[in-house]
Amino acid sequence: MLTIAIPTYERGAVLCETIALLLELRPRADEIVIVDQTCEHPPHVAAKLRAFDEAKAIRLIRLGAPSIPIAMNTALREARNAHVLFLDDDIIPSPQLVAVHESALREPGVWGVVGQVLQPGEAPRHFDEALLRRGPIRDLEFRFSHDTACDVQNVMAGNLSLHRDQILSIGGFDEHYTAVAYRFESDLALRIVKAGGRIRYEPAASIRHLKAPGGGVRTWGDHRTSPSPVHSMGDYYFARRHIPNFWPYVARRLRANVLTRYHVRHPWAILPKFVGEMRGLIAALRSE
Fold it and tell me: Which stretches of the chain score pLDDT less than 70?
């Protein structure tokens, strides 16, 4: 028995298209929970969502303010089934998506299953071990277009199924990750492993991510040019919690995010980006 949960923010039109595709899956989920953080939808979108809800095709939960971890924790608590599959609101699911997640979650010791995520224009491909595990923490840079099943220690929240009770027992998603909430799912993955759970990567549970241009995390603008701390705070907070060599990690992040090809071509963006990084670092250091 599986619940699909979709946190959504300012993406009503594509959300309705995603819901329609999920309702066509065979087998399909026992319930679909939509955690909607949008203030107000256009009338035609609101009417479609209301029709889905009244027909009991979905269960609509509304939150007053956008927060990815809070929305996902809300879905965990509200789900009526032991297994919860989190999906992005702008996807095309593979026909066997639900079946593969359900099957993999029955494997001994598995607390979570992360499926393949193909970005626009991307195809499945095979990566060798050196490319799959190259970060300071194993699997931090795992390639989710990989074509082979394996155990991992990182996840993407846009195609992630979890054992509800086990995840709630370790506190669910950390709500200190705010706005863009970068690395919040990696944080959960490491806590699952620390608690003794396995995470399985299953490429057969595939989605195509449409990467809708508006709404969601893109509400907070272009991370390459923004002086806002929202784009970097999550990564620094994650490093504080999980990476022993914190300051070398900070230095690597600064080099990787401020001294890029984009910034060489757009040097006027270096200062605002650097300011955003510093503000994110300070916010992470102050976060409890």
Answer: 129-138, 214-221, 288
